[in-house]
Amino acid sequence: MLACPICKTFPLRLFVFSVRNIKPTTSIRRCELYCAYHGDFIKNLSETDCATCYGKEISDGLLECANCGRWYPIEEDIPRMLPDDLRNRQQDEAFLIKWKNRIPQHILNEGKPFSLLHEHT
Ligand SMILES: [Zn+2]
Ligand SMILES: [Zn+2]
Question: How far apart are CA 64 and CA 2, in angstroms?
Answer without folding.
Answer: 11
